[in-house]
């Protein structure tokens, strides 16, 4: 029984369906969808500010907390808003050694963000490559790779990190390596899942028919279509990496004292908690919090926008 | 007809309020179904037949809303009735069978659980009575060894069996009205035939009214007493089944019947109604079928009123093809 | 079903074995065991005697073999700091950690699921939006910092709850538990809450996502068409469907709780396994580190196994699939 008809009559699509009117590129639609949420836009802005601070910390910091000459024990443990004897205004107070908290936070953001982002990016590259290979070649390669991924993912990140640090020791490079090893599996699994879906689509067969080499198919054709979930995972993972590094530094097994990330700053303030000098731990924590929350909010909105199932 | 009809729908209007505009899924639909009568509600996808079904049972979800008209169930208007009233009616006096048996049954609950709860929701009996009743009804729809099979999970049944279970659930509380939305579309032809036969038998015996929603005229031809043809949210033709099938009056019905394979001689191109169904967001003024109708003219731009060009036949058209029917 | 279990058991044993290899190799090759294990003030003769005693002069695979043999006997070496068997030290601390983790898990579930289901059923209300916003916070806030703040507010400023230690305990089946005493409960509350926050947010989001997906399914609409009450639909039809993903994640996350207790125990000075390992890492107490890692791997493997079995019980589709296969 035939219901739909052939186009023997020319029909003006615009008259029938006004939605078709404006041709939108997918990117423009993505932008307009993203900007629908004020929260997401706000988070993006905040994130931008944080990145700016991290990049330009030495320039915009009111004091340099690591210049031993300018730090004096007489200034230590001053509450927020107080003035030092030399007339410097400490907006957020000072810590146990007399370093200005605001400046320490700026430098700390730099390190926390730097370590977190770098490890996430490298893990992304490694994980993506592995995931693509697993999905594309299938069979035994796939099974073996996914077994490894599954086993690693069945252990919590912090445990894997502890094991690695117990074995590797201290140092900023060791931390980054540990963070990378902790994260790559998430990327691998995500990319493999979407690559598997894409692999079965026709354009891959078409590319194969054109006798394009495998790497080319992988990177030029499969990869761009796996981007959306990858972007979402990347944002969330970066937040996790930053949080994990802070936790490890707080526990004293993370970054060494010469590279004080926010985690270490908070740890330094731990001992002053009971004497009510809360600001030493509080403000770095707030900075950490804002960073992580804004990354997560951006990631949330990205996920909603890029999820094809939730498209109206 | 005798007494109050089981169901009388008067000028029902259900609209969907979406970002892109308002889709008038049901735009002034009227029909009646009497005790023991089987009405076929026929139309292509998008014609509004499923939404009509949901509107009657009160399960239209936002962004959809019934904005006008009446649904008189045994004389009582249930449009806008409070949810408790509707809950009492649903599954008890008015039952609905959905199209896809795969997804209508909850995959993690056993069949007997899903049947017993339907009984217990409406009647104050003990579990064992409910279980017995479920067993009897399952046997009635032709499921062998009902006692053991009841303990199974939906995915352990075949498609045909699952749909029988759905039908059994509809029958549990002996409803006055059953709305069946494409109940046999997902099944193969032999089972379809069986179910059609059983449905007819049932309605004759128990006096249950049945609305059979489908896009397939052939299915409805074998079982219905009367037929309502829907197009773009409106009923365009209504009448006794044999009369409409033998002498269709609305150009759309004529087109539908003409496109059933078998009507043309071998070697000839299959007839198709030209053009496409309009989007429900932007229906033209007046008749929705004009752009595809060979008999259309300026008059068709006016709002179409229903008329009765032949006794017992209601049409919404200004050029009913009374003489052309043969 | 038993085929399923046996297969999973084999996998688990394999994982434990691989972990032992990694740990062994890591500790003995990457670091220099001689430096680590021997008192730096010992003279040459003593060092050589140590090496012979500990078997460090044997080839690596022999060392590993002895390691495994000893491990199976329950001997994972002695702690440098406490001079007691490492295994014993850890096992002593297990009840404290487990108690913390279990209470945290209970909190996450009991509070998280109702909140998540509510947010899924009525996503546009103010309460729902608040719940979701709070869950993002719970998810993003670093646990240790929240712990610090909790101490700040509840212990120091308000003085309502104690800030460290375990408080009084009572014996039950020969093991000490805190929740049996009022004082113990007071000590338990903050750290358990702290530990549970992250998981609670996860549970809320999962429950909400699950609810939103399930609510639109045909079988829910069919349940309504049957005239079932709202309560029945939510608590039976909906719940059973979202429980499956929730249980799976929770089961895996319980392991995460135990691992993460490392942080909470440090902040609140709760005498559990976690605190032990952090101290051991700082003090380079290698035997304890090794013992801890092995035990934790074992715990994890067991948890994963239990979760898999539970999952197959909850989801009848999985059960039967395995019978055929």
What does this protein structure show overall?
The complex is a heterotrimer of chains A (312), B (326) and C (325). Chain A is mainly alpha-helical and 312 residues long. Chain A is built from eleven helices and two strands, in the order αααββαααααααα. In chain B, α4 (111-122) packs across α5 and α5 (127-140) crosses α7. Chain C has a two-stranded antiparallel sheet with strand order 1-2. In chain C, α5 runs antiparallel to α10 (230-268), α7 (143-157) crosses α8 (182-215) and α7 packs across α10. The chains are: A mainly alpha (312), B alpha/beta (326), C mainly alpha (325). Chains in contact: A-B, A-C, B-C. At the A-C interface, α6, α9, α10 and α11 of A face α1, α6, α7, α10 and α11 of C.
Primary descriptors:
heterotrimer; B: 326 residues; alpha/beta; four-stranded antiparallel beta sheet; 11 helices; 24% strand; C: 325 residues; mainly alpha; two-stranded antiparallel sheet; 13 helices; 2 strands; disordered C terminus
User: What percent of the residues of chain B sit in helical stretches (DSSP H or I)?
Assistant: 25-40%
CA radius of gyration of chain B is 21 Å
Query: Roughly what fraction of the amino acids of chain B lie in strands?
Result: 15-25%
* Quaternary organization: heterotrimer
Spatial gap, N to C terminus of chain B: 28 Å
Basic shape of chain A: elongated
- Enumerate the strands of the largest sheet of chain A in spatial order, edge to edge or round the barrel: 1-2
Work out the helix count of chain B. 11
Widest β-sheet, arrangement of strands of chain B: 6-7-8-3-9-10-12-11
Structural class of chain B: alpha/beta
Gyration radius of chain A, in Å: 25 Å
Count all strands of chain B and give the number. 12
Unreliable spans of chain A? 1-8, 13-22
Largest interface: A-C, 40 and 42 residues
If you average the pLDDT of chain A, what whole number results?
75
Number of helices of chain A: 11
SSE series of chain B: EEEHEEHEHHHHHEHEHEEHHEE
């Amino acid at each position: 029984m035939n219901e739909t008809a052939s186009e023997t009559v020319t029909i003006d699509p615009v008259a029938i369906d006004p939605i078709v009117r404006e041709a939108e590129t997918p990117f423009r639609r993505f932008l307009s969808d993203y900007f629908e949420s004020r929260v997401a836009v706000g988070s993006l802005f905040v994130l931008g500010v944080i990145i700016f601070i991290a990049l330009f910390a030495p320039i915009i910091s009111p004091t340099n907390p690591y210049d031993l000459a300018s730090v004096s024990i007489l200034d230590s443990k001053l509450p927020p808003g107080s003035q030092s004897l030399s007339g410097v205004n400490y907006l957020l107070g000072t810590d146990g050694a007399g370093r200005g908290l605001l400046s320490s936070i700026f430098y700390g953001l730099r390190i926390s963000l730097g370590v977190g982002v770098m490890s996430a990016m490298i893990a992304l590259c490694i994980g993506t490559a592995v995931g693509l290979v697993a999905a594309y070649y299938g069979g035994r390669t796939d099974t073996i790779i996914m077994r490894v991924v599954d086993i690693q993912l069945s252990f919590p990140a912090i445990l894997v990190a502890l094991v690695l640090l117990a074995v590797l020791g201290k140092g900023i490079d060791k931390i980054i390596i540990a963070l990378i090893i902790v994260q790559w599996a998430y990327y691998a699994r995500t990319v493999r899942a979407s690559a598997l879906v894409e692999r079965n689509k026709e354009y891959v067969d078409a590319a194969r028919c054109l006798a394009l080499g495998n790497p080319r198919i992988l990177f030029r054709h499969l990869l761009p279509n796996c981007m959306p979930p990858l972007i979402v995972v990347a944002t969330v993972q970066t937040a996790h990496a930053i949080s994990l590094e802070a936790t490890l530094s707080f526990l004293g097994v993370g970054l060494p004292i010469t590279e004080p990330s926010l985690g270490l700053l908070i740890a330094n303030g731990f001992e002053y908690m009971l004497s009510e000098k809360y600001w030493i731990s509080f403000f770095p924590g707030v900075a950490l919090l804002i960073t992580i929350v804004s990354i997560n909010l951006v990631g949330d909105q990205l996920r909603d926008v890029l999820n094809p199932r939730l498209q109206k | 007809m005798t007494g109050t009809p089981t169901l009388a729908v008067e000028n029902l209007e259900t609209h969907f309020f979406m970002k892109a505009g308002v889709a008038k899924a049901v735009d002034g639909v009227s029909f009646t179904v009497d005790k023991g009568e089987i009405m076929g509600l026929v139309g292509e996808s998008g014609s509004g037949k499923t939404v009509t079904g949901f509107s009657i049972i009160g399960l239209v979800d936002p962004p959809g809303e019934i904005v006008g008209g009446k649904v008189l169930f045994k004389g009582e208007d249930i449009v806008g009735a409070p949810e408790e009233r509707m809950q009492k009616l649903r599954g008890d006096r008015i039952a609905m069978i959905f199209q896809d048996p795969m997804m209508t049954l909850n995959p993690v609950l056993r069949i007997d659980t899903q049947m017993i709860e339907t009984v217990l929701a409406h009647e104050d009996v003990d579990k064992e009575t409910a279980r017995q009743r479920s067993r009897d009804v399952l046997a009635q729809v032709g499921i062998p060894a009902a006692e053991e099979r009841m303990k199974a999970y939906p995915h352990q049944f075949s498609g045909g069996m699952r749909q029988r279970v759905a039908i059994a659930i509809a029958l549990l509380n002996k409803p006055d009205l059953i709305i069946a939305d494409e109940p046999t579309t997902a099944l193969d032809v032999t089972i379809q035939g069986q179910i059609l036969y059983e449905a007819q038998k049932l309605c004759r015996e128990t006096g249950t009214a049945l609305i059979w929603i489908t896009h397939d005229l052939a299915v409805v031809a074998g079982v219905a007493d009367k037929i309502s043809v829907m197009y773009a949210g409106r009923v365009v033709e209504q009448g006794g089944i044999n009369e409409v099938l033998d002498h269709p009056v609305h150009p759309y019905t004529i087109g539908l019947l003409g496109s059933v394979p078998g009507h043309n001689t071998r070697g000839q191109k299959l007839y198709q109604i030209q053009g496409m169904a309009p989007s429900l967001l932007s229906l033209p003024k007046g008749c929705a079928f004009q752009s595809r109708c060979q008999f259309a003219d300026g008059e068709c731009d006016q709002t179409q009123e229903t008329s009765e060009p032949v006794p017992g036949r209601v049409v919404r058209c200004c050029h009913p093809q009374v003489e052309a029917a043969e | 079903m038993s085929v399923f279990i046996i297969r999973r058991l084999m996998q688990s044993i394999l994982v434990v074995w691989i972990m032992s290899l990694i740990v062994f190799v890591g500790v003995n090759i990457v670091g220099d065991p001689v430096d680590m294990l021997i008192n730096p003030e010992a003279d040459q003769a003593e060092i050589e005697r140590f090496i012979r005693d500990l078997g460090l002069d044997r080839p690596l695979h022999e060392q590993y073999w002895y390691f495994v043999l000893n491990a199976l006997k329950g001997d994972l070496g002695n702690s440098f700091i406490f001079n007691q068997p490492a295994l014993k030290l850890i096992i002593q601390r297990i009840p404290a950690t487990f108690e913390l983790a279990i209470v945290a898990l209970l909190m996450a579930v009991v509070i998280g699921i109702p909140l998540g289901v509510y947010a899924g059923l009525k996503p546009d209300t103010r309460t729902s939006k608040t719940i979701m916003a709070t869950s993002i916070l719970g998810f993003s806030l670093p646990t240790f910092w929240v712990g610090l703040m909790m101490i700040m507010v509840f212990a120091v400023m308000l003085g309502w709850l104690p800030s460290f230690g375990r408080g009084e305990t009572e014996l039950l089946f020969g093991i000490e538990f805190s929740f049996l005493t009022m004082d113990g409960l007071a000590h338990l509350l903050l750290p358990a809450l702290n530990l549970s926050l992250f998981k609670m947010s996860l549970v809320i989001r999962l429950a909400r996502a699950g609810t939103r997906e399930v609510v639109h399914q045909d079988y829910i609409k069919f349940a309504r068409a049957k005239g079932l009450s709202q309560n029945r639909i939510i608590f039976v039809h909906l719940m059973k469907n979202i429980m499956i993903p929730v249980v799976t994640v929770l089961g895996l996350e319980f392991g995460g709780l135990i691992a993460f207790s490392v942080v909470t125990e440090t902040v609140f000075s709760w005498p559990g396994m976690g605190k032990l390992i952090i101290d051991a890492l700082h003090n380079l107490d290698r035997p304890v580190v090794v013992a801890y890692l092995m035990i934790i791997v074992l715990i994890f493997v067991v948890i994963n196994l239990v979760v898999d079995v539970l999952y197959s019980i909850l989801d009848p589709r999985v059960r039967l699939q395995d019978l055929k296969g």
